[in-house]
DNA sequence: ATGAATGCAAAAACTTTGCATGACG
DNA sequence: CGTCATGCAAAGTTTTTGCATTCAT
């Protein structure tokens, strides 16, 4: 949809093959939450010869430029998604691994209130619900 | 306060030196949120000769036994704290690194509602607010 | 005594970095 | 053309695992 080279220029980044392609991968990805490894794999599968190190470097730059957002889900690896300006939180299904985005104004409001009450302001926040389908009976 | 060997037995874990000591470290720690490395360092400084691998193994077992809770803060390493039965979330100061615990019933309630609305039930959740002192002016 | 727990070191998973080559403006 | 980006491989972090030894019951 958007013009990638243009976005890169606006972000003050030199327009290079790898950067454009990585941005495209993130946009086209059906599951919009990709790890660095997944981005790299997607590139290779598309015949793009980009090194994993470059993927990490570029993703880090994109994050710094607010082009993408990085999330640290449980399990030690990060995932990235295109930042469309909208903030939202995530629900991760522990059985299927699928990621659902959601946003709740009231939660946001309460968070601000809590930080404020302690004399702080929020720089960032991280809310992830780990869930399972209601029907599944995992008796304990 | 509590009898550590007793707690271990109740959790179905064999009472061993390292396990008792690690439980003590977690209880005595002034900052109650320790990483595996920190637990290990604390042990060594106390003259306890425990391997780092054992610390990881024991912490994993303790977590499985609900004796402790593991948190994955941003930055790639986990921290652990004694689970006292109370659930709470965390606020991490980005300038001092200090961790503040809080709990808000309304947020909990809304979270359940959101999961429910999508056909899920919550297995676990993770809410961390990254904050900075209100007065501090970090111009960008 | 016997099976589980430990320590050490090696390995694994994820991410960063150094350096020579190649590409962008 | 000069500088910055890239690729490769090596190094860094954090956590896990294999195996012989030690310990709890």
List keywords for this structure.
three-stranded mixed sheet, DNA-binding, 39% helix, alpha+beta, homodimer, 140 residues, 5 helices, three-stranded antiparallel sheet
How do the strands and helices of this protein lay out in sequence?
The structure is a homodimer of 140-residue chains.
Chain A: H1 4-10, H2 17-28, E1 34-35, H3 36-45, H4 52-64, E2 68-72, E3 78-82, E4 89-93, E5 99-102, H5 105-117, E6 120-133
Parallel strand pairs in A: 4-6
Antiparallel strand pairs in A: 1-3, 2-3, 4-5
Chain A binds a DNA duplex (25 and 25 nucleotides) through residues 14-19, 35-37, 49-54, 56-58, 60, 76-78.
Task: Describe the protein.
- The structure is a homodimer of 140-residue chains.
- Chain A is of the alpha+beta class.
- Chain A contains 5 helices and 6 strands.
- In chain A, the strands form 2 sheets. The first copy, chain A, has a 3-stranded antiparallel sheet with strand order 1-3-2.
- In chain A, β2 and β3 form a beta hairpin.
- Chain A is globular.
- Chains A and B meet through α5 and β6 of A and α5 and β6 of B.
